[in-house]
Amino acid sequence: ETGVTQTPRHLVMGMTNKKSLKCEQHLGHNAMYWYKQSAKKPLELMFVYSLEERVENNSVPSRFSPECPNSSHLFLHLHTLQPEDSALYLCASSQGNDKYQETQYFGPGTRLLVL
Amino acid sequence: GNSVTQMEGPVTLSEEAFLTINCTYTATGYPSLFWYVQYPGEGLQLLLKATKADDKGSNKGFEATYRKETTSFHLEKGSVQVSDSAVYFCALSGQGGSEKLVFGKGTKLTVNP
Questions:
Q1: How far apart are the first and last CA of chain B?
Q2: Of the residues B13, B74, B97, B106, which has the fewest C-beta atoms closer than 10 A?
Q3: What does the pLDDT look like over A64-85, one tens digit per residue?
């Protein structure tokens, strides 16, 4: 049981579709993150939001568009994806105050398959 | 830049065997070090952490000691259980004003009864 929820848990989409992933945290944290987890690769940090402002964007293609309307919610909007974008997308949150001892809390992930 | 190297898997053990998963890191200054665990079909969970040299993190029978002299944070457990089967990730949080975690590639552990 975690304080970070993600919906949907599974998603299948075609390359021309538009979909959104949702993340919600109930921990009162100020920072939220999107990660991509592909087989046999380290977790790839995609985006970081702190106090609803994007503070990091790790060279992610524009077909991924994040949105953080408030400190509890984070979205990842998807459009015209490629099959190689199929992966587990993980959301995480952290307090955002103590940069040296930051612990991130992860959601269960959305398993995305692009056909 | 900061990086984490952990032993390649998969690791297969019998129940009650001793577990070691090696992790070494490269970082400037004094990073915080973490072990995360991912059970099948789930997201990552923090298993333990250490924030300064010689600190020992422990949880659920797992331990890891922050060794600055060898830049290591090896994960150990004296007697594994079937329920410990999961993927284990070593990670560090840099001391540079950045909040992001740098992860290793993960080590898959399978414990057989």
A1: 41
A2: B97
A3: 999 999 999 999 999 999 999 9
Measured between alpha carbons, how far is B44 from A103 in angstroms, rounded to an integer?
12
Instruction: Measure the CA–CA gap between A91 and A112, rounded to whole angstroms.
Output: 13
Question: Going residue by residue through chain B (113 aa), what tens digit of pLDDT does each one get?
Answer: 788 999 888 999 999 999 999 999 998 888 889 999 999 888 899 999 998 899 999 999 999 999 999 999 999 999 999 999 999 999 998 765 455 788 999 999 999 99
Establish if A40 touches chain B: CB-CB under 8 angstroms. Answer: yes
Cα–Cα distance between A38 and B26 in angstroms, integer? Answer: 23
Pairing of strands B86-93, B32-38: antiparallel
Handedness of CA A48, A38, B87, B9 (dihedral sign): negative
Q: Do B106 and A104 touch (CB under 8 A)?
A: no
Say whether A109 and B42 touch across the interface (CB within 8 A). Answer: yes
Question: CA of B65, closest CA in chain A: separation in Å?
Answer: 16
B6 in A contact zone (CB under 8 Å): no
